[in-house]
Amino acid sequence: xxxxxxxxxxxxxxxxxxxxxxxxxxxxxxxxxxxxxxxxxxxxxxxxxxxxxxxxxxxxxxxxxxxxxxxxxxxxxxxxxxxxxxxxxxxxxxxxxxxxxxxxxxxxxxxxxxxxxxxxxxxxxxxxxxxxxxxxxxxxxxxxxxxxxxxxxxxxxxxxxxxxxxxx
Length: 168
Fold this sequence. Notes:
- By secondary structure, this protein is mostly helical.
- The chain has helices at about 5-10, 15-40, 50-75, 80-110, 115-145, 145-160.
- The model has no long low-confidence stretch (mean pLDDT about 85).
């Protein structure tokens, strides 16, 4: 059984951050491949292709990242209710998707940088960095919160029903 003191929580931060980064790297490769694959094939010459490609690539990467984060990076504090956790993960990920989407929109439509390279920098460098910081914070302190996992285990051991809200 793991310790749930503030000191233990902080001690897990670096290894968890490294695992999160590794999962994110896989998600990045998935996102990059899907984004560029769509831009060069399906959406080639389609108006607003960068927006559509960003959305689809990010949704595919979200699925990949949920599996990696649930079963590896945050495995010690994943929730018993996978569906609820999955919904929370998806909500945070969609909010995080808005960050690179905004960066692509700003770069492409406001600043007029319309090359594939500019779209990749806006999406996969600036947007990815800002979105990653946002997602890690919300995954660690809400979706995969050790306090919630510990509380759920205590409730299960006591035999009482878990009546917690999504945001506990």
